[in-house]
C-alpha cells in the first residue's frame, strides 16, 4: 500500500531545543493513524510541517508523494486540517468563511456554496450558518473546524485533538463522522490525549516522545505488551496454590489475599483457562473470574516515561528491597528489571 | 493553473469585502478628515495664501490630499489585514491552501490598493464640493494613482509581517508614514524651501507621488513626471518581489 505521509529523518529545532529529532514515519493511504505523545512531544510541530506552518530544519516530508516544500501546492491541496487552536476568520459568518476556504483551494463560487451547506449540515450546525465564529458555543466551534477541514474534500484529514474539551455525546458524534470518512477512503491522522479515542478508532498508532518516534504498532499489539490481571475468587481460602509462574513464562506474579487470587500475566486471556484448569485440578472451587486487561494508556505511560522518572522508581524500589531481599533474594533485581521493561 | 486563479479571486474578494463591509472603520474616517482639511487649509487659510505654481492654494493641495488619503489607506489596509490575520491566526486559512505565494501577495496588494484608490476618489469628490477641479492629464493621474497605491500596499505587507503587536502598526503610521507625507509637498511648494532642504526633500518618495498626481490634475509638476513614474513603478515591482520572498520564507508567518 502506498503512503499518504512519508517522513524521513525529519528535524525541527528552535535554538537549542529539538522539537523534532529525526522522525521516520509512514502513514499508509486509507488508514486511520494515531499520533500519541505527552505534551511537548512534537505532535503539533509535526502536523504543522506537513501543512506549511512550520519550516523543517532537516529531513524530508512528503504527502501523497509530494514534497511539502518543493511541491507545497500539490501537498496542501490534499490536506484538510482541523487544528487544536482555533484559527478562524472572525470577520465573516461561518458559511462565508467556508466558501472562502473552498475558493482558496480552487473550488468555484457556486460549488463552494453547495459544499458549505453540505458540510455544515454534516456536522450539525447548518442553522448557525449566518453566525460569526466568535458567537458559537465551544462544541459548535469544534464542529466548525471539522467542517472547514472537510470543505476541500481532502484525501488526508489531519485532526489535532479534535475532541478536546467537548462533551461525551459530541465526542461520539465526531467519532462517527470521521469513521465514516475513513470508511470512504480518506486517510486520517489523529492526535489525541484521549487514549481511549486512539484505542477505538486507530488502525495503527505512533508514539512520539521528545521529538522521536518511540514505537509504531496497532493498539492491540501495544496492549499485548502490557500485563493483565486474572482475578480469581475462590470459595474457600486455600493453604497453597499451584506454582503458575514455574510452568508458564507469561506469568509474572501471583498474589493471594484471602480467597482472592491475582495472577499477573502477559496475554492474560490466553493464560486464564490454564489457571482455571489447574485450580480446578487442585480441588479449588471458583466462584468468580475477572480479567483486567492492561490499557493502552498504561502502555503509553510506560513508554513515554522520562529517564528521570524511571530512575526515581528504581531508587524507590531499591529502598524497599532490603527487607524483601531477606525473604526473597531476587526481589530487588526483579523490581529493577520491571522498571527497565 | 485554474486552482490558483480561482484561489486568487477568492482571496481578493475576501479582502475587498472585509473593508467594504466596515465603512465606519474604512471610509468614514478619511471622509471626515478631508472635509476638515479642505475647510481649514483650503478655505479658511487658503484664502490668505497666494497662488502656488499658478493655481489657487486649495487646488494646489487637492492632489496632495488625494495621495495622502490613498497611500495611508492602502498601507493601513495591507498592514492591518496581514497583522490581524497573524494575530488571530486566521491567515493560516490562506497559508495552508494551495495558493501560490505570488497569488497570496497579489491578492493582498491589489485589494489594499483598491481601498486606496476608492479613498482617493472619495477625497476628489469632497474636493469638488470646495473648488472646481479638472483633469489635465488623465493617463498620468490614473497611472500615478495605481502605482502609488500598489507601492504603499506592498510596504503595508512588509509592515504587517514585521509588526509584533498593534503598537507597532501605530508606530509605523505615526513615525514613518505621516512625516513622509507632511514633508512630501502636500501643503507647500518645493520652491518655497531653501536649497538644502529642497535637496533633502527630493529624497522623499512622496514628493514624486504628490507631484505626479498633481501633474495629472493640473498639468504642472515640480519634478519630471515620466522619470517619477518610472522610478515609482520600479520601486513597486521591487517591494512586491520582496513581499513574495518574505511569504516564501515564511517571515512573520511560520515558525
From TrEMBL, chain A:
<dbReference type="InterPro" id="IPR017871">
    <property type="entry name" value="ABC_transporter-like_CS"/>
</dbReference>
<dbReference type="Pfam" id="PF13732">
    <property type="entry name" value="DrrA1-3_C"/>
</dbReference>
<keyword id="KW-0067">ATP-binding</keyword>
<dbReference type="GO" id="GO:0005524">
    <property type="term" value="F:ATP binding"/>
</dbReference>
<dbReference type="Pfam" id="PF00005">
    <property type="entry name" value="ABC_tran"/>
</dbReference>
<dbReference type="GO" id="GO:0016887">
    <property type="term" value="F:ATP hydrolysis activity"/>
</dbReference>
<protein>
    <submittedName>
        <fullName>ABC-2 type transport system ATP-binding protein</fullName>
    </submittedName>
</protein>
<dbReference type="InterPro" id="IPR027417">
    <property type="entry name" value="P-loop_NTPase"/>
</dbReference>
<feature type="compositionally biased region" description="Acidic residues">
    <location>
        <begin position="318"/>
        <end position="327"/>
    </location>
</feature>
<feature type="domain" description="ABC transporter">
    <location>
        <begin position="5"/>
        <end position="235"/>
    </location>
</feature>
<keyword id="KW-0813">Transport</keyword>
<feature type="compositionally biased region" description="Basic and acidic residues">
    <location>
        <begin position="304"/>
        <end position="317"/>
    </location>
</feature>
<dbReference type="InterPro" id="IPR025302">
    <property type="entry name" value="DrrA1/2-like_C"/>
</dbReference>
<keyword id="KW-0547">Nucleotide-binding</keyword>
<dbReference type="InterPro" id="IPR003439">
    <property type="entry name" value="ABC_transporter-like_ATP-bd"/>
</dbReference>
<dbReference type="InterPro" id="IPR003593">
    <property type="entry name" value="AAA+_ATPase"/>
</dbReference>
<feature type="region of interest" description="Disordered">
    <location>
        <begin position="304"/>
        <end position="341"/>
    </location>
</feature>
<dbReference type="InterPro" id="IPR050763">
    <property type="entry name" value="ABC_transporter_ATP-binding"/>
</dbReference>
Automatic annotation (TrEMBL), chain B:
<feature type="transmembrane region" description="Helical">
    <location>
        <begin position="227"/>
        <end position="247"/>
    </location>
</feature>
<feature type="transmembrane region" description="Helical">
    <location>
        <begin position="139"/>
        <end position="163"/>
    </location>
</feature>
<protein>
    <submittedName>
        <fullName>ABC-2 type transport system permease protein</fullName>
    </submittedName>
</protein>
<dbReference type="InterPro" id="IPR047817">
    <property type="entry name" value="ABC2_TM_bact-type"/>
</dbReference>
<keyword id="KW-0472">Membrane</keyword>
<dbReference type="InterPro" id="IPR000412">
    <property type="entry name" value="ABC_2_transport"/>
</dbReference>
<keyword id="KW-0812">Transmembrane</keyword>
<dbReference type="InterPro" id="IPR013525">
    <property type="entry name" value="ABC2_TM"/>
</dbReference>
<feature type="transmembrane region" description="Helical">
    <location>
        <begin position="57"/>
        <end position="75"/>
    </location>
</feature>
<dbReference type="GO" id="GO:0043190">
    <property type="term" value="C:ATP-binding cassette (ABC) transporter complex"/>
</dbReference>
<feature type="transmembrane region" description="Helical">
    <location>
        <begin position="105"/>
        <end position="130"/>
    </location>
</feature>
<feature type="domain" description="ABC transmembrane type-2">
    <location>
        <begin position="21"/>
        <end position="250"/>
    </location>
</feature>
<keyword id="KW-1133">Transmembrane helix</keyword>
<dbReference type="Pfam" id="PF01061">
    <property type="entry name" value="ABC2_membrane"/>
</dbReference>
<dbReference type="InterPro" id="IPR052522">
    <property type="entry name" value="ABC-2_transport_permease"/>
</dbReference>
<dbReference type="GO" id="GO:0140359">
    <property type="term" value="F:ABC-type transporter activity"/>
</dbReference>
<feature type="transmembrane region" description="Helical">
    <location>
        <begin position="27"/>
        <end position="45"/>
    </location>
</feature>
